[in-house]
Amino acid sequence: MVTDDDTPEGRIPTDTVVGAALRQCFAEGIQAYIVQRGDKHTGLIMVVHHILGKGYRLLLQSRNEDGVMGWMNMLGDTAEDVTPDYTDIYPIVERAKSRDPDLWIVELESKDIAIPFEGTIFE
Question: Over the stretch 17-76, which tens digit does the pLDDT of each residue have?
């Protein structure tokens, strides 16, 4: 069922989720910004996460086999898998942008591996 504002029932609109995560980042002194705004109600989120001193992670919001919303690390099988070079992830991000105009892309930079979004990273 879809509500009057086009957000599926029981789901928080994506723009609200992203806004809350950015406010949390700013409160914690984490650099974060929106690279691409997608559909404000139902767009999925991609996170380009620069972990200072370690490298980059690329996380895509997705569901596991049980339908639970979480994050898939696009660069490996574990939550800790990173690449030291941004140029390794740039083509993946550009391809995702061209395929899904509803996709939100958020970049953040922190010392910690944790991200300010709800859900676990699937392994």
Answer: 999 999 999 999 999 999 999 999 999 999 999 999 999 999 999 988 998 889 999 998
Contact residues for 82 (Cβ-Cβ < 8 A; gap 6+): 51, 54, 55, 56, 57, 75, 76
Nearest to 83 by CA among 116, 117, 109, 49: 49
pTM for the model: 0.88
Tens digits of residue pLDDT in 82-122: 999 999 999 999 999 999 999 999 999 999 988 999 889 98
Q: What is the CA radius of gyration of the chain?
A: 14
C-alpha–C-alpha distance, residues 42 and 40, integer Å: 6
Q: Tell how strand 45-51 and strand 104-110 pair up.
A: parallel
Q: Please name each of the domains of the chain with its CATH number.
A: 14-111 (3.40.1530.20)
Q: Which residues, 6+ apart, have CB-to-CB distance to 81 below 8 Å?
A: 57, 73, 75
